[in-house]
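Contributing new records

If you add data, match the layout below exactly. Sequence lines come first and carry their own label; structure lines follow with theirs. Keep one chain per record. Anything else will be rejected by the validation script.
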Amino acid sequence: MRSQTLTTWPQERAENDHEYRYRYIQARESSARTYANSIDRVLERGVLARLYDTEGREYLDCLSCAGTLALGHNHPFVMKHVWDFLQSGHLQQGLDISTPAKYSFIRTLFDILPEEFAANARVQFCGPTGADTIEAAIKLFKTATGRRSILAFHGGYHGMTAGALALTGNLQAKKQVHTSLPDVHFLPYPYAYRCPFGLGANVTEVSLQYIERLIADPESGIVKPAAVIVEAIQGEGGVIPAPVRWLQGLREITRVHDIPLIIDEVQTGLARTGDLFAFEQAGIVPDAVCLSKAIGGGYPLSVLLYHERYDRWSPGAHAGTFRGNQIAMVAGTATMEFIQRENLAEQSRAKGLLLENHLHAIAKDFPHVGDIRGRGLMWGMEIVKYDSASDPIGSRPANGLLAKMIKRECIQHGLIIETGGRHGAVLRLLPPLIVTNDDLLEIAEKLRKSIQAAVECKKENI
C-alpha cells in the first residue's frame, strides 16, 4: 500500500510540493510513528512559541516537543551559547570524560536543586533519552538494595525501553511485547476524577492506607521492593497532579519502610509546573530524581540524580556512547541560567492560573469537558460523553474519538496540542515557558473554535 502511494502519485507533482513531502515520508516511515499521524504538515521553522510549515502557515505550539523545549524554538539565549560553543573547538561528544561544558552543567544543576537534596546528591549521565535514566535508576536501586521488585503506579509513563516500559501503565505498547523485567507491581494513583476506589476527591488517605498495608502485609504477595517510582504529575497518563498530602504520605511510608523513592521528573522538570521540580510543592526529599527533556535545552540528554548512600554500583554498571553530549550540556546550562534569571518558575505559576481560567471559561460552554486539571504550564482537559450516564462519583465515560477530532481541528486552526490519558481522551497543553499572556488568550480562542468545530462535525455525522 505504501509503495503504491509513491508510484501512483501524479508525475507532474514536483518534489517541493508540500503534500508530496508529507506523503513520501508517511509512505517510507514506520507504522509506529505517532505525532505525525495527526500533524499532517511538514513543519519547517520555529520561533519561540510559534511554528511554521513549508507553506508558511503559522501554529501556536502547545506541545513543545512533549515538554522538551522549555524556552520554545530557537531561543536566542540558548542559540548564542550553542553557536559560541560550536565555534570554540571544544569536544562535541566526550563519553563520560571531564570537560569544561560538563563542569558548568553540573555546577549549574546542583545550584538549582533543592538544597537538602543537592547536599548529598550524585549524578549519573545516561543515554540521550528519558527512558535511559529510568533504566539507570532500576539498576542502581536493585544493586544498592539487593532487592528485585519495583512498585509503580497505574497511569504512569516512564519510557519505551524494556525496563521503563515494564514500569509504564499504558497497555498499548505492552500487548504484543513480553517485557524482560519481572516483579513489577502497580498501585492505584490518586486520580480523583476516575478514582480507583470510587471516592473521588477523598482518595488520598485511602490510597495511602492501601499502600502502607500492602508494603507491611506479610501476606501481600509482594516482597520488599528495591524502589517505588512515581510522577508527581502524570503527563502522558492524562495530566494528573498527585495531591501534596499524598506525596508527603508516600515519602513517609517509603522512609519508614526503608524503600527508595524515585521521582520521575522527565516531563515536569525545570519550572514546567510552577516549581523548578514538581516534587518541591510537597516539600519532600526523594532518594532519586530522573531528568531529561528540558534539561538538555532542546538537545538529547538525561541524568539520574540520587543520594550518595546508594552509590554502590561499579564502573560501567550503566554506560552509553552519547552520555557525553556536550552540545546538550551547553544548551542545558544556558536554559537553566535563563530560567533562573527570568524567574520562569514563578512566571509559570502566574501564567498557569491565567490558562486555567481560560480553560474553565471554555468548559462552561461545552459539557463535553468532564475535568480540567494541571499546574503551572501543564494542563489537561478530559473529554467525555456528556450525554451518557455518570458513575457514582459523577465521572462520565471518556470520549477519545471526540478528543481526536478536536486535536485535528486544532491543526486546522493553527494550534498544536496532544492527547493522552485513558482512551486518549485528555487534551494536553504544554506551551513553552516563555509563552506570553496574549499567546495564552490566542491558545484559548483557537481551542474554543476547535472544540466547537469538532462538536458540530460530530453532530453532522451522527
